[in-house]
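User: Modeling request: complex.
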Amino acid sequence: MSFIIYVLINTVFVLLISPLLMGLIKKVKALAQGRRGVPLLQIYFLLAKLLKKENVYSTNSSFITRIAPYLNITFTAAASLFVPLVFIPDPVAGIGNVILFLYLLVMAKFFMALAGLDAGSAFGGMGSSREMSISAVIEPGVIIVVAAIAFVLKTYNIPQMFALTLASPIFNSATLLLISISLFIVLITETSRVPVDNPETHLELTMVHEAMILEYTGPNLALMEMSHAIKQTLLMGLLINILFPWGLATALTPGGLLLAALMFFVKSLVLAVIIGLFESLTAKWRLFALPKLFMLAYALAFLTIVVELLV
Amino acid sequence: MALLVPSLIAYALACLLPLVFLRKDNKAIRQVSYGLILIASAFLTILALKIFISNQPISAVLLQITPGLGFSVFLDRLAALFIFIIAIVSVSFAIYSFNYAEHTGSHIRKNLLAAFSGLFILSMVLFVASGNIFSQLLFWELMSLTSFFLVMFDYEKQETQKSGLFYFVMTQMSTLFLMFAFILIYNITGSFDLQPLSGASPAMQGVIFVSLFIGFGIKAGIMPFHKWLPYAHSASPSNVSALMSGVMIKVAIYGLVRYLVFVLEPELWWGVVILVFGVVSALLGVIYALKEHDIKRLLAYHSIENIGIILIGIGLYVIFRAYGLPELAFLSLAAALFHTLNHALFKSLLFMTAGSVVMVMSTRNIEKMGGLIKKMPYTATLFLIGAVAISALPPLNGFVSELMIFQAFFQSFSLGSPSLIILLFIGLSLFALTSALAAACFVKAFGIIFLATPRSEEAANAREVAPGMIIGPAILAALCFLFGIGSYQIFTYLGYHLPIPDMLVISLILIGFLAAFLLAMRLVSNRQKRFSDTWACGLPALMPAWNTPLPVFPTPY
Amino acid sequence: MILLSYIIFGAIITAVLLPLALRSRNVSANSTFLNNLNFLTIVHSAGYLGITLYIMLRVPLPAYYFKHYLFIDSLAVYEVLITSVIFLLASVYGHGYIKSLLRAGELKAEMLGLYYSCFNLLMASIVFAFFSNNLALFWILLELTTLFSAVLIVTLGARENIVAALKYVFIASTAMLFSVVGLIILFSMTKQVNGTGTLNWSELMQSAAAFSPSAFVLAFAFIFIGFAAKAGIIPFHTWLPQAHAKAPSVVSTILSGVLLNCGIYGILRLYAIAARTPSQHTVSVILIIFGVLSMALAAFSMLPRSNIKKLIAFSSIEHMGLMLVGIGLGTFTAIYWTLFHILLHSLIKALLFFSAGILHRQYESNKMLEMPNALRLQPLASWGLIIGSIAILGIPPSPVFLSKLFILIQVGAYSPPVLFLVLVLFLIVAGAFTFLLIRAFSRHTDDNIPTYHAHWTMRMPIVALFVMIIGAGIYLYTGLGDILTQIVTGLGF
Amino acid sequence: MISPLLVTLTKLILVLVLFSALLIILQRNISSLFNLYGAQSLLMAILAFMLFAHNGQVVLLALAILTIITKVVIIPYTLHKVQAGAAIKRDVEFRYLTPVSSVIIGIVLIFFVYYVLGKVLPTGDTLLTMGAVIGVSLSLMGMMIIFSRKKVITKVIGYLVMENGILLFSLFMAELPFIIELLIIVDLIIFIMLAVVLALGIDSTVEDFNSRLTAFTTWLKR
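Assistant: Request completed. Predicted assembly structure:
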């Protein structure tokens, strides 16, 4: 029973907060660049507008284009259950398995990449191909980061990880700080941000994520944007709750939940500022230079393991 | 027993019947032959399931030639699992072949194809069922021989000749090492029976292990003994490729596991060797696959990759066993065996659907295809299911077995030796890379073959294939779902309590979310739709050649 | 006096046949003359087969004749059985084959008489070689077989045939002269032990234990040279590939299937003596070394081959090497399976050469690159070659698998490194066979090549051999096994 | 036991035999080869006769007579006759070995054989040792001729020398039963004939050769 409540709370929270975080980062970037930027809630307006528009399909496209947005958001939303943002539930049937979490996200990406290929546009194909290569190259880093966390905390269940870090007064282990840098790089990559990708451009040869969803309009685009936002929230949540889990509720009390939600909002605000600043301070890298970045993430995570072994 | 012998006889009949009427061009004879294979395989599936569920080994002597020399049958859970793999793929194979085999060359060749297929399956079943070394060796060779003839099916093609020669030499090399090992074992125990080799010195055991590993490894397609595999699998008819890639290389895995678990006393360094070879095979296999433009060779390279993954599981098993961690060892072994089953299912599925495509297109070059999803929707869907499964994406079966391996890896902190842990983590990261590259590769493969616009005349004129060629793979696709979603329940039912997520719950949640989102979108969104051409950068029409993804697949590091 | 029947029978046939043969000058392919010669040859070999079967079933063994110069024991009968089967098939096959050669003009009509007389004489001399208890007598008959078979090789009259025959004659006879040296030493050794010298095998077996080891090894080495040359063991093998490849296929069959056996038979008899002397170990080592070397040389020589008959000839060298190893191991199991291997080797070699013969008639060539559309034009012969190759490589369901496996097991017990080496050699051989067969049978041409219609007498033996090779496996468990056991115990193992 | 004179004589003849073998190695003229061979065979016969005179075994006498008839008379005669029809008179082609090096190797061979046989043969009987050693050496020298000469006709001579060596060996080691000796000799003669005919075939055209072979057949069955 408590599980179903958890599902509802977590999903609703994720759905609500994701566009906001998206807008937050946009705002931070704009401010950093000396612009006023769009309103914080702009993303909500955008989604609402898209839902009202009609769907336009390419004559070349097949059912893949039609099902991809739904599958995409379904899998991302399912993945959101694995990262408790406000409340740590009791483990149920392997919910929270970090590997499953990662692969649910990959599944979403898989269909998005297929959809990119479906219409037969040159941009979509290029985007898919780049997306899949980037995701392949970052994968060892991701897994090793996760493995390092699992290695430090001796569990591979995300809620349990949070519970463990929550139980300890300050940084459970200094090594977690090392990991967090890697985790940050993963976050940047997976959410298609500078220097890996540029979320702002639409018709440049450098783009990756945007190229794949180029053919979408209307409600379908809204679903795609939404799932992208959710994914970003999840990864941010993962980083935040491993490093600074304070405030996470462990019991179902309305006050605790509210506090937790507030705490999470504040923490994610800080992170959004960091991301925005980071994005403003770096330029986009060449595609073939990216492995250097990933190697950094990999090396740091590996270092964590080595340090942990020596301790 | 009651099911086994009639099945074997049915296979033998399926082989003999077309041979007797070799010169007759009679479709009915071939249909009967494939029908016999179908029935026998169905029986064997039941038998395997019975043994698997009851966990009561069957042991019997089929034919005693002289004392100490004969054909005996020994079926325990391990053997039953592999019998199940062979049988279930054969069921699908038979259904697929009803239609497919009619498109392959002259009538004598069609008859020969049916005959050799029967013999091939028979020899694989008998190898797995063999209760002693002698019959194992015998049927191993028979299997190699029949598969060689199947590879040589299009013997007039230059390419096939090369493949055939390569294949034959490699199988003989594998026999060489196996014979060496078997004879050493025989000379230690003094009998052909499969029994623990407790008396032998560690050095001797090491020699036996190395030669067994090479012998089985060649057949399984482990790097660097893999060279034959892409050649052979692409040269043979597609239904046979499905058998070879789906089943035959698994038979080698069976041999390896059988000897590691029941006969030899593994040491730590064996596990490290297996693990290293596994990681290398997995990684290089998938990298080769990425470069490939021949669809069947692409799939063949993925077989190498998956064999690598299976070996990683076996290697972990040996390592954990050497460290006295039975639970982790069991998890790794279960992962390896489960992945063996899963790979058999989705690889056969992929080979069959790819075979349909190749048959329609008369080319194996994927750059000539494109847009087939609209002409062959069922085939495309089946291929997609296979692609999702092989890319290890939830909730299908391929994911579950890879997840188990990941979990085994993650728990390697319980090992004592730091250097070993470092090694395992390097292995883990490369394994992750493999898995991601596989997904990338199948996005590419599925995208180029089925999506976008046709890039050749044949692709534009393609037609959906006959029902048999849909139903056969569809069985496998259904099983991919079953073994993915029901994995936790199945393991629990069999009495193995493994710490894996309950995919049934996950799937229910997924369905729930999907339904919710569909409903929500129905309520809030604009449901109008419009069709329009893809934006072609302002040019009058889209060039088909554009939608080939750039070959931007940087080699990692 | 069953042996007498052999002699009388052989004498009658020869008496009828030789004068007939000598009259041959210009005869056409369909003449009754040729048919008569053929018929007599078939009767001759069938007669031997009949008598041999009678002996196997009825006569208590061993039996001695002519002051123990001749004798019949189970090993001899076994070898004679193989010989007469191969000869019977060869003479049936020869019926169509010789006619075909005559028509093509490759065989001159004047040669027919020579061919048939030597064929029959060769048969008789081989049979009696197996029956001789006396090693000197055995030696003489063996020399005669060289002579007759050399003549058979040159009946085709081509220059390379003469070269091949000369090479054969010189190498075999030169080596055989060394055997005489060995025999003389052996003779003087028995004289020292018993007072009177003897070369009778049965008596040698009894006095073997008292032989001085070094002298016996010397005698063995000398005798071995001669017998090894007959068996095509390295380094006396150089005659073999050429002779086997150039001879007409009927003769190749005899050379490979029967004549090589004579050499191996001699070595086996000798080893049986050696096993009772203190020098058994040394002799074993010699045999195993030469056996492995032969296999190695054959294997490496097979790789670049493009001539089918040459490949088969090298395969014979390889198998002789294996048999030598089997004998050298000297255990009951090893000898038992070596004997079985001898039978199968003869049958399969016959199958291979018969098939190659038909292909040669079709394409007038033995080269792999000159046989387009072979599987379509000559399915029987092609499949004969393919199945024969599989059989000779020892891949199941070929019964050779059994003998190979068990000999290898014994090798493994003797020394694992040697086992590994032998296995590698087998791999090379398999590769060579596959390479050649694949290349040969995958040639394709759109030219319309007229099909050569092989006479039924050429096809029938091939089918019979298919049956017999499979039958040999079944027979092993229904009777042959007992016979082999009897032979091996008879040899004193 | 054996009279010293006889021993000395025997030794002398043995040395002569060896000398004749060396001459054969060096000789290039083919008809001289035949003559040398005839002389060597005569020495054999004399040896056999001397041994007969010593121990009175009839076998040896018969052997001596047989040797004279076949090897001194028939074989050289036939060879000469056959040679008359062939084109070649001299054999100047060699493989592997020149005659001089052959002689050197021949001497080495003798020492080698002495070393090997010395280990096996009963010590003390110098005559027996000498006979055996020279017999085996002679065989080996014959083999050397077969290997080093290219013309078949000289190969035949080499073969005959080998056979003489073996006769020598058997004379000293042990007397085989006469029937065996006889059979061996008959065997060899047939063999020589065949070799000669074939040798001619190789030096003439194939058609010519065929008729010769037929003639040989007729002779064989006479």
